[in-house]
Amino acid sequence: MSDKTKKRVVIAGMGFGGLRAANVLAGSNLELLMVDRNNYHLFQPLLYQVATAGLEEEAIAYPLRGLTRNWKNASFLLAEISGIDLSGKILQTDAGNISYDYLIIAAGSRTNFFGMESVEANAFDLKRLDQAEDLRNHILMMFERASRETNRLLRKALLTFVIVGGGPTGVEFAGALRELIVYVLSKDHPGISADETRIILIEAGDSLLNAMPVELREYACGKLRSMGVDVMLDSQVVGATVESVELKDGKNISTYTLLWAAGVAAAKIAGNIHDVVRGAGGRLLVQPDLTINGHPEIFVVGDMACCLVDGMPLPMMAPVATQQGGYAARAILARESGMGLPPFHYVDKGVMATIGRSSAVAAAAGFRIRGYFAWLAWLLLHLYYLIGFRNRLVVMMNWTYSYWFQERQVRLITAKKRRAVSI
Amino acid sequence: MSDKTKKRVVIAGMGFGGLRAANVLAGSNLELLMVDRNNYHLFQPLLYQVATAGLEEEAIAYPLRGLTRNWKNASFLLAEISGIDLSGKILQTDAGNISYDYLIIAAGSRTNFFGMESVEANAFDLKRLDQAEDLRNHILMMFERASRETNRLLRKALLTFVIVGGGPTGVEFAGALRELIVYVLSKDHPGISADETRIILIEAGDSLLNAMPVELREYACGKLRSMGVDVMLDSQVVGATVESVELKDGKNISTYTLLWAAGVAAAKIAGNIHDVVRGAGGRLLVQPDLTINGHPEIFVVGDMACCLVDGMPLPMMAPVATQQGGYAARAILARESGMGLPPFHYVDKGVMATIGRSSAVAAAAGFRIRGYFAWLAWLLLHLYYLIGFRNRLVVMMNWTYSYWFQERQVRLITAKKRRAVSI
Fold first, then answer.
1. Does 3.50.50.100 match the CATH number of domain B117-262?
2. A352: part of which helix (H) or strand (E)?
3. Which of the residues of A are catalytic?
4. What pTM was estimated for this model as a whole?
């Protein structure tokens, strides 16, 4: 498999950044090795729909070997990355050591609990496919459990859902959960009315979606509130138990469901790469060409990279990762043909978030849209960026089905409770 | 929820038998309570396609509350059944005791390892949805593991798959696995050729599919062999370890994958129902009207029932369960209106099994067909019996996709290895 005459590019992590880099390097005269701990690329922006029974897991994952089949210069290794030997140019994994000529680090991010151990121990988070399935199982189980509970207070706690973080994940999840309850679960459980359930969205700042223009923030907040979501701004969570969430002002909320969507940090591997300056969240500081200081052969892209523009790091989101992945790959190709590239320049194509049925907000290129057309744009763009013809079909079918029938058929409690709550 | 003026029918288990009974009782003037440990009905005949990456889990499961929504007299309880108090007319579950006027026991079957503990500890079996996902993850992992293994013997063991039991499950799984390897996995892994993999189907008797006419048995066996499956007849497995299978004649096969499909027994709950005569596999002996002796209010249907016809028990298969479930429900309705029903009579509609692409066998009403048309009939009948419009669409789409593109996109290694093999 290894061709000594060819230089080897290793991509560590096959999220949005790694995938774009691989796409650019496919068919080149470099040997390409893609490494990931999963055998699929995950379309994270739709993870919240898996957690709210709108999509099956498989619809948002694409098998990576489906790509290497068609790329003669590419191969794939399923492995967990443990470290990097910078001077020896070796990537260390649980499947052995891999030497590289160029390395693109694109290992993404993990949830940041800011050191609050009680929250980390008791909260759900939404980064991985199995976490989305766990959360879906748990939400459905809370309704099953509540439907036969006679203790009024316990029942109320079972039907209270707390989401922390007013960014896109928190907002989209809160809206989708409210719709799951109103359109589906309250009909499934004749004894439970949507009014006795409670969804609380907690945000430390004074507005939701703070990357958006003010009018869209206010629209999103008003829309969520009109749907029945309890939005608490300027509030902070400081602790949690299995059955409660503690706020900074001393209040306690009885709940068995806490979703933490209030922070991300660089993937753990960033901590094992020594002698590199770090930014907030442990992200690796990169040069204007996305390499790390003193190592022109190592590029860092996506959530792991702290790429300063006018002194501010670029946000941790898919479009940044995609553009950086593409840049790193082109920079390698350019260097191999003896040329150079101008520094990385991020093209801000805008931000968007969906709130619910026929309702979203989008800000791009000076335009600000909200409501039905923003929602339609959101649907089409997500279908477009989703990978694989079959996945697009399945997702489109599920969306059409949900829209017409107000049904979500993926409301299955699948695995035996991997995360058991004994109540 | 409970209406004292109405008599209550409890259905314990919502497989094929329970589901048909519920369908018949829906809309009647009896109170209907459906109990299952899962919140979905599972279409077991397609479980092997989930295990071979052909279908997503969600496509063969239908949420039971999707039914009770439309049936005013019906409700659902998610609970594990632990026992029955025959004299008190109480069903005991982990969600509390439930009184009944009529009880339909339809809890199905479990895998029968015939007391071989080493096999039970090391074999996969295919009864539940999570087992199918585990097996899929495991098969895909064996290929990932083998693709970077240099030890020739270990690599051979990783690529050897042993299936025990030449009934429909064993035959269908062996065929589907062979096609997964030939059409998909050997292309995904350029370093692994289909020829170096080995699928061994072991059957204790002298032919496969012994419920079929002889010529179809021979066709199925010949077809599997021509596809590259190693069919071993008159062979018996007597033990297993993580890395090997031991045969009665002393031979040892090095393998990390053993699927046990060689026997079923009544679900465990059958052992907790006292004073009832049992047949083979712990099945409860029923009267000609499917009730148990001395308890005209208790019906047993499907795999749990030992229903003798001319001294032989009816086979443990879906059509028997479905017809019995319907009969039990009609018998209850008849009794409530002061009438009686003639004894249960099984109408044998035939048997069928698919072997691979464009190849199946079917025997019905004196006809015996094989090859393409049997395969087409198999596809259409399975689509027809699958529950839910959305599921039919997803399954049809997956089948069409696989047939055209010879691809199986659901080849994902999803959950963290719940069943870890340390090699």
1. yes
2. strand A351-356
3. 172
4. 0.93
